[in-house]
Design goal:
The structure is a single chain. By secondary structure, the protein is of the alpha/beta class. It is built from five helices and nine strands, in the order αβαβαββββαβαββ.
Length: 174
């Protein structure tokens, strides 16, 4: 009987802890569609340097607020992260927010922090901007926003290489 009780308690605890964070994962394509068709926001939690030089999605509603910042040659959790998010989103905790980073790891921590702060409509973009998978040479050419042929650019002012922009089709008789 005692074993059965412990088993039931274990199962209940598993379900409670599994649902502690309610965010869902979205693919880059699903995130793109949520922004374009539903007015969702992509919260890019990478550093400003990554946002500008590595690139970022070229769609409406992209916001860069770093989840980690450099302090004394180490990256630490940005102590102003939640405050900056609240300020930008005007304390509206019901907006659809999709966290994104380089490869999908920092964005998980940021999604959890947002939910702990009371945000109710949080999603995480798996594989991030550059992708979580690496090719045989170690480059991030597998999955992610950039490798899914979605629109993006390398400067915050729009003048840069568009990763997802397909070249116009050439006529055969030219």
């Amino acid at each position: 009987m005692n074993r059965l009780y412990m088993f039931v308690v274990g199962i209940v605890f598993t379900f409670i802890s599994a649902s502690a964070f309610g965010y869902e994962n979205l693919s880059p394509t699903e995130a793109y569609e949520a922004v374009v068709y539903e007015g969702a926001y992509i919260l890019d939690v990478r550093t400003a340097a990554e946002f500008i030089w590595v690139g970022h999605p070229d769609v409406e509603n992209v916001v860069n607020i770093s989840y980690k910042v450099e302090k004394r040659d180490q990256f630490i959790v940005n102590p102003r992260f939640i405050r900056d998010v609240r300020r930008f989103f005007k304390r509206n905790k019901d907006l659809q927010i999709i966290t994104m980073c380089r490869s999908g790891k920092r964005s998980i921590a940021a999604a959890e922090a947002l939910e702990e702060a009371g945000y109710t409509n949080v999603f995480n973009m798996v594989d991030g901007f550059e992708g979580g998978g690496k090719d045989q040479w170690g480059y991030r050419t597998i999955n992610g926003w950039k490798n899914s042929e979605l629109p993006g650019h390398t400067t915050m002012y729009g003048a840069g290489d568009y990763y997802g922009a397909k070249k116009p089709k050439q006529d055969d008789d030219e």
